[in-house]
Known about the structure:
heterotetramer; B: mainly alpha; two-stranded antiparallel sheet; 25 helices; 74% helix; globular; D: two-stranded antiparallel sheet; 2 strands
Amino acid sequence: xxxxxxxxxxxxxAVGDPQEGVPLALYLAVxxxxxxxxxxxxxxxxxxxLLFLAVELLLNSANLALVGFSRYWNVTxxxxxxxxxxxxxxAEVVIGLGLVVAVFRQRLALDVDQMSSxxx
Amino acid sequence: xxxxxxxxxxxxxxxxxxxxxxxPGEPDRRITRVIGVGFPAAAFVLTAIIFVTLxxxxxxxxxxxxxxxxxxxxxxxxxxxxxxxxxxxxxxMLVVTGVGSLIVLYxxxxxxxxxDYRRFFAEMGFFLFAMLLLVExxxxxxxxxxxxxxxxxxxxxxxxxxxxxxxVAAAKKAFVVNVIGDIGMVIxxxxxxxxxxxxxxxxxxxxxxxxxxxxTGVATAVALLLFVGAAAKSAQIPxxxxxxxxxxxxxxxSALIHAATMVTAGVYMIVRCNVLYELAPYAGDxxxxxxxxxxxxxxxxxxxxxxxxxxxxxSTVSQIGYMIMGAGLGAxxxxxxxxxxxxxxxxLLFLAVGIAIHALAGxxxxxxxxxxxxxxxxxxxxxxxxxxxxxGIPPFxxxxxxxxxxxxxxxxxxxxxxxxxxxxxxxxxTAFYMFRLFFRAFWGPEPEGGxxxxxxxxxxxxxxxxxxxxxxxxxxxxxxxxxVWHPLKDWLEPTLLADPGLEATTGGELxxxxxxxxxxxxxxxxxxxxxxxxxxxxxxxxxxATGTRALLTDQYRFDEVYEEALIQPGRDLGDTLTNGVExxxxxxxxxxxxxxxxxxxxxxRVVQSGLVRGYVFAMVAGVVAVGVxxxxxxx
Amino acid sequence: xxWISALVLLPLLGALSMLAVPAGPGGAVQARIHAxxxxxxxxxxxxxxxxxxxxxxxxLQFIDHxxxxxxxxxxxxxxxxxxxxxxxxxxxxxFALAIMAACWRLPERPRAFLxxxxxxxxxxxxxxxxxxLVLFYVFWEAMLIPFYFxxxxxxxxxxxxxxxxxxxxxxxGSLLMLVSIVATAFVAQDITGNLxxxxxxxxxxxxxxxxxxxxxxxxxxxxxxxxxxWPFHGWLPDAYRxxxxxxxxxLAAVMSKAGVYGFLRIGLPxxxxxxxxxxxxIGILAVIGIAYGSLLAWRAPTMRLLVAYSSLAHLxxxxxxxxxxxxxxxxxxxxQMVNHGIVVAAAFAIVAVINRTAPDDRIDGIGGLADGAxxxxxxxLIVSMASLAxxxxxxxxxxxxxLTGVFRQHAWLAVLACAGIVYAAVYMLRLYxxxxxxxRRGGMASKAELRVRDLAVLLPLIAAMxxxxxxxxxxxxxxxxxIERAVAPAQVAADRPEDQIRATVExxxxxxxxxxxxxxxxxxxxTTPAEPTP
Amino acid sequence: xxxxxxxxxxxxxxxxxxATAAFTxxxxxxxxxxxxxxxxxxxxxxxAAMVMSVVLWDDRLEAFGGGLRADRFSALMNxxxxxxxxxxxxxAWREPAAVDRRGEYVGLIxxxxxxxxxxxxxxxxxxxxxxxxxxxxxxxxxxxxxxxREKSLESxxxxxxxxxxxxxxxxxxxxLLFGATGSTSLSAIGDQLRGTAFTDEPLVIAAMALIAAxxxxxxxxxxxxxxxxxxxxGAPTTVTAFMSTATKAAAFAAFLRIFSGVMPDLQADWSxxxxxxxxxxxxxxxIAALVQTNMKRMLAYSSVAQAGYLLIGxxxxxxxxxxxxxxxxxxYGAMTMAAFAIVIIREREVEDGDTLGALDGYGRARPVLGxxxxxxxxxxxxxxxxxxxxxxxxxFGSALEADMAWLAVAGAVGSMISLGYYLRVVTVMWAxxxxxxxxxxxxVPGPVGLATLAxxxxxxxxxxxxxxxxxxxRGAAQSLLAP
Lengths: 120, 635, 534, 483
């Protein structure tokens, strides 16, 4: 999935109402960038807290896209969706932090790479 | 009536066998004797009644089919469990039950000292049943069944002394060689079924000229395949090697099975199938050539054998060679005539020699015999009758029958002439080796150190059969005297549907008679000169021609060649397959596939590193892969 | 009365009834009673079915049909025809004998053992009775489970590997068969418009050559492994070697017939074109198997392996008879299935007897038993001779019919196969002679002499051998109508001359018109558009 | 659009209410109350929800403005989730994590089930995402519930991290789908995608790829399966059992809802990719399971493979395929639950109860449990006439009917490989075992035994009652695919 394939949408945005402001394509570009950044973060970070941060990036990149699409289609569904996602993201992070605390209390290293007692 | 009698003749020996086998515990020897001899004797009596009955009928009326039930019916092929009573089978039945009864009678005394008394008579009964089935069968299928079952009986009796490894090996060899023969016959039967759709003698012989055609490949194939069976059963080259080894069996067995009856089954079969052989003249010629080659080969081997029974065994091979040669050339009635006289004199020889062996507590080597005539006078006389008969000295039976084959051969074109000459040479050799046996065993000096126990004369049970056979061997030849009468030929006439009508000319008869008798007398004289006149001469001559002698002693090394060329490679192949193909191919492929899968699994374990970021990476890669697939599928 | 269902369900019931049997010595007696009642009852039912069987009907008789899951086309559909009749009878007899033998001398954990035997019987009965592809597959697989346990729990050293091999190898083929079964139904649905797994309705569907070939290949692999056909016999030596010998006997006597039966019941009638395409290759493999099995039997170190490989060779003859597409050869093959079942069961029974005195089973380790065990010698001799198909034996009757038929179609295959008869003589005599003859080499003859319980198993088998040897028509005659019809489509596909094709090839009546058990067979002709006859 | 229509959501509401009640009951004073109260409340709630699901069977209702549907599909799926939850609660009767924190345990299980029911009944992209997150988040906690155990924590954390990424991928896919169609309502999206106009729309393609990947993660299909063995091993075994049955069912509910239900016309586009995921899962799951010695890991890989089989029914996209998948889900639930039940029982008895070695000779000591395990393994391996066979039979059939024979062949080959490990369990179970029998045996607590037997009998019952169950599955599939 490359950005180039978004060309039709870019065109659609370009010929759209100039009052629309920021074209959809830019929303999507930023959103995609955030998503990749999030993925990169998940792949490179070893501290669970930073991992959760990266996950937040992933979810919020989707939020951005949702909002962008919502504006593009001029509907509110996307906004609702984005709100739901925020709640969910918060819940996830809460659980994550709880786990981190539990890990800490077990005097285990806060390093996901060391959490590999199970494998194979 | 004849149907019932025919089945009774067949069933009585089997019944005896079954009774003896199932008798609880070890039956009393007297009971064994009564059953063992009584049932075959009864069969002989019934056969005689059949014979007389048939004799009272017109020649055309002498055919009777006794069907018990339809054995199988499948896709047009119908096989009846049926017997065919006609002059040829009655002749065979007479010999089988007659000589058979005499020999079991003889055995009652001969086997006296053996533990497994009952088993012997049970197996003899089984043999008689199988042999009778062979000769009485009304179709090729039951011919083959009888053929196979006599092989089994022969196997059992050769291996009678089952704790003796040589006997066990000989039995196995006989069996396997005979199975090879069976297969020839079976394939011939396949062809008959395919071409003619039937296996009944009557229908086959009636339709064969049309169905197979004369001088066609199919007819030749049938004839040759049948001959494979005959060669195996009748010990013709190259399937002859089992017969000398078969002498491991008790002597009465050798007399009955491996001399008088079973081994001549091949001759019977060729005569029975005369129609087929007349359709395939080349096959007939080949049969005759094989017969001639066999007779010459066997005769030469017999010259040097030391084991007295082996000499007789090779002489049997040689004599059957005559019969096969005659049958191959189309002299069917002559062949049967020689079969008849041979049954008498060869049974006689075996039984008489058996007396000597029995008297010497199982000794069979000529080297440890000599001067027996002083101990066993009557036996000596009997052996002399047998030797004169086989050597073809008139008026003993062998003279008439052998000369008839040779004389008829002269009438059968160039090939016949050549073969007749071979036969004459063989006749000379025969006279020499038989009298070598006779002189070395019964004349000459006693072996060094004399006999441990003085050879004892046999009782009535052994003497009587020998006496009867001696008389038959002496006068049996008178049954058919060229130019005077030929009742045997007339008797067989209805069954020889395609008799080519070879006729021994008087001139031929004369030439053959004179030459053969002259050769025989010279050979006997030579034997006397070497073995009796000066016993030392034998030892002096033994040094000459060692190579040839060794070759002959080794029986032309057929066994060795077979071992090297067929059996050992077979074993090696079996081992190679076991250790190679089976282990690495069949099992190995399976294991290899399994191992490959398991190794892949191990590899996957390594990939499953426990590192969560690796898992995420796999997911990302998966997303990309799925995306690629989607974009590829996308039109 | 649903005779055939009863045949299948009675052993199953017997197996389930073992659950109600208490453990301990009292339970052992009760378990025996249950097992004997179930197996004996099945035998009696079987005898009644044989008695009532109508030899002139080509199709299935005594059909019991109950829908199971119609949506998926599944149903309980059993019946019997001339082909399955004798296999059912063989199963009933063999299992009755096996259970009798097992009851005589119970193994450890008798309830489970007897229950597994009965389950295996139910599975095989169901397999031979199934008139529906899915049901056939169900029983095909289901019978593996009891055999798996019988080998895995009561087998010898190294049995785990043997069982896994046995089951995996067998299932490798059968899962492809499952795909083939499903494919058959759907392809047929495309052609005829109705979804069915009934073998009766499927035979006669005009599959294209390609469809027929591919689907047949899927079936053939499963059957070939089950047979086993060379070179798919990798599971055989271990399974035969390590199973309890009673189970080995059953594997060889009964289970090995499943593959052949599959070819005959499904392969030929439903996929004649595919069968035609594979006939010669399978025939060649069969001939190789005959030679190969014989050679390996000749050199086998142990008695069981020898009999196991001989079984490979014998099954080669049988499958050769099937792929000849000749009525006579096929009849011979069916006869030979029965024969082989009887003979190989007897052979393993004898090996079991000899193993009493020579537990390591090595052929070199024994010798000269005939001296102290004359009964054994006599019975063994008869069995050996039957096994090597000496003329006059029951096996010879079968092999003769097979080979005559094969010779009519492919003379060269028959001639090559004949060589196997020589080998058979060599290896069987090796077994017989080294055990019974020669000098005593070990083993106490008195221990190996047949006792009453051995005779109780062997004498019925020998009686059956003699009966068939004397009157094979009793067996062959009942198969004629069914086999003529089963082979006809393949004969048509193989362009055999008209005079060899003895049955008209036509589709079965649609399910509504199926005769109820006992009804006269209606003369209705097909309504399905399928008509493969050119 | 604006009607709430609570009736359609009653099962879900009852479950959620029961969850709350369970949480509360867990906080009540009194040891016995704390221990048994939540379980009883939970069970009562589950039974009530099941009754409501059955009552709603014949209706087609919508609630929350179309966000939630009550149709046969959701009813059937609800029954699966609720049964799994019920069995899990019973199996966890003596599970350490559950005993001390019964309220949390039961409550979380029910919340998770509520999430699953949301997924199954989803009429809207938001509901799907919300459902998946609800079920996941509670599972993250459940996995790590034994906080004193390092493995449990590791399992929770691993599941959380991978789960979050998976959810994000799914979310992005849903977002793109929304972006391409302008609506989050499934029926509206379905209307938009009717016809083939969108087949070359990159946004839709990307959406499908991401959604497939995200759901494949939840279904533990390769190559998105890698969390499965670790999480399954580390989590409390009852939770593992629940995950492997209910969560997988939820993932397939989403698969069927979105792919078969919303974009049937694009089947040609997505079937290959989903088929590829199926083949990969069958291959990887079966091959990797061969070399496992830990029962939970082995069952984890087995569940990967089973996901592959289940995906066959999704990939073909037909009613028959959906029907087969649903039926197989039923069978799969029963047999997996039965297998885990034995592991759960064994874990109480010996330290290394989750290893294959612990089962050595177990069948001889415990014939009934041995029989249950045997039936489960044979059914998983696809032996007829057990329910696993019928399921596979239907799945292969649907593939062949759809001219995707390669899927059936892959399934068959995979099944062959699977015999290697399923049968090994059976062999080990019935092996003579160590001298003197298995090391230690404890009496099985009643509820655990009940659940074990119920699962084992379920495997058999599903095959015996194949006909009515297939009717139900077909009804559910029709309500999904042929509105």
